[in-house]
Write a structure and sequence with these properties.
Layout lengths: L5 E6 L3 H16 L3 E2 L8 E6 L4 H17 L4 E6 H5 L1 H5 L6 E3 L7 H6 L9 E3 L12 E2 L6 E5 L13 H5 L7 H12 L5 E5 L14 H9 L6 E4 L9 H10 L6 E7 L3 H6 L6 H14 L4 E8 L6 H13 L4 E6 L17 H26 L3 E6 L7 E6 L4 E5 L8 E9 L5 E11 L2
Parallel strand pairs: 1-2, 1-3, 3-4, 4-5, 5-6, 8-9, 9-10, 11-12, 12-13, 16-18
Antiparallel strand pairs: 7-8, 14-15, 14-17, 15-16, 17-18
Length: 441
């Protein structure tokens, strides 16, 4: 056993990172370490990084500073995407002891126990991403209500704005049977909802006889999991059979899709090296809504991509205005080293990017409000969560409407049948119980 006894974890970025951090945390617990909160003077800090935006890089540096304020003698390990992309940059951050790239992040205990004491120079273990071929199954555990299940890793798409293939390597996954075993482990807990995560999950099974449609059919049969959500799926990989299965045949997949668009302008989609045009996107949305008018559809959009003119932005904005979608995740384009987009020239001024972002955020709020209004008066199944917020508790309907209700400990992690009644000033739905009995989704 190492001299270090208490360990704390901090995760930046996506749901996939959360699932991996949770798996690494279980490794530490199994090895005899105590997992504690960030502020509880841990002996070890493990920071799982993201590098989708410049802001995530800055956040990593801030966290190291914060950690060393709490315990100046703490051992600091940095893992994740930023650690793969810029290991030497991280190694220069004062107080960092080890930097582990994609190949080594699941061996963090071994690396920590192999170092006797804090040194002045960080140890860096970072192989070429081309060597990263292993798939390590992961799922998050700790939130009683939901778990993030990693079903796929890496990406072969190389969109011009994205560093993920450089940080996570080629698309890969475990066989369906192995993934079902991970889901069965989650089913043995009291988790009620599983969110399927990955970098490009629709690409599951590439190069084999298996595919994502077969995976979700298999997961739907796992006993003990009430709900599944698909975290995000590319429009060109969201086939009609997947849509039809989730909305018509499945007992457990909810009517909620998150589908990245990035731009509603075809020239920009081509410049981004996306694998579809906006017509296909509109077709996917139309099919979903024709089957389930109440289905929730989320959209990823990038503003300020190099060369995006005012006309092209407005073209994209108007396309989104006309789509029956429910909310946006808006990303302001940021220049990333080693991507094709930085070489395109013609950058959009930062003040223009911010202004466009603001316009899309306003439209997103309007879309969300309209979607919520359409749901007023409907009867829904809500899975309530365990946090108490000024005497209220929150939960989500199957179609991703956020609901509030007076806190009742007995309702934590239960499904309740409610009637959605009105939207409050914070944009959250109030509801009335139609049944005091917990139900399954």
């Amino acid at each position: 056993m190492n001299q270090y006894k208490k360990v704390s974890f901090y995760t930046l970025g996506c749901k996939l990172n959360f699932s991996e951090t949770s798996t690494i945390a279980r490794q530490f617990i199994d090895a005899g370490y105590a997992k504690v909160d960030f502020e509880e003077t841990p002996d070890i800090y493990v920071i799982n990084t993201c590098s989708v935006t410049e802001n995530a890089d800055k956040k990593c540096k801030q966290l190291v500073k914060r950690a060393l304020k709490i315990n100046p003698e703490a051992f600091v390990a940095i893992i994740g995407c930023y650690a793969q992309l810029k290991p030497q940059e991280i190694a220069q951050i004062p107080g960092v002891d080890v930097v582990l790239g994609a190949n080594e992040k699941f061996n963090v205990i071994e690396h920590i126990e192999g170092i006797d004491h804090k040194g002045n120079v960080a140890k860096v273990e970072n192989e070429s991403i081309k060597e990263t071929k292993e798939f390590v199954p992961s799922f998050s555990f700790g939130d009683r209500t939901r778990s993030f299940l990693k079903v796929q890793d890496g990406c072969d798409y190389f969109c011009t704005f994205c560093t993920i293939p450089l940080a996570r390597g080629k698309s890969r996954n475990a066989p369906i049977q192995d993934t079902l075993k991970e889901a069965e482990k989650i089913a043995e807990t009291n988790v009620k909802e599983v969110v399927l995560t990955g970098v490009n999950i629709g690409d599951f099974g590439q190069g084999s006889e298996e595919n994502f449609f077969q995976l979700i059919k298999g997961l739907d049969m796992v006993k003990g999991i009430d709900r599944y959500r698909i975290s995000s799926i590319e429009p060109n990989l969201l086939s009609n059979e997947i849509i039809d299965f989730c909305l018509n045949e499945s007992n457990h997949f909810v009517p909620h899709f998150h589908i990245p668009l990035q731009s509603g302008n075809n020239r920009l989609l081509k410049a981004m090296r996306r694998k579809y045009l906006r017509e296909l996107y509109a077709e996917r949305v139309s099919r979903i809504k024709s089957i389930r008018k109440d289905a929730c559809i989320g959209v990823d959009v990038i503003v300020g991509f190099p060369g995006e003119t005012d006309e092209e932005f407005l073209d994209s904005l108007n396309f989104l205005k006309d789509l029956p979608v429910s909310y946006f995740h808006v990303f302001t384009y940021s220049e990333r080293a080693n991507t094709t987009a930085v070489k395109l020239g013609d950058p959009v001024p930062m003040n223009v990017r911010k202004e466009r972002s603001k316009m899309l955020h306003i439209l997103s709020e309007k879309k969300k409000r309209a979607f919520y209004e359409e749901n007023i008066g409907t009867i829904r199944s809500v899975l309530f969560e365990n946090e108490e917020d000024t005497g209220m508790m929150h939960g989500f309907t199957e179609n991703y409407v956020k609901v509030k209700f007076p806190f009742d400990e007995q309702m934590i992690n239960t499904f309740q049948t409610v009637e959605l009644s009105e939207i409050d000033r914070d944009g959250i739905m109030k509801c009335k119980l139609t049944s005091t009995q917990a139900i399954t989704a």
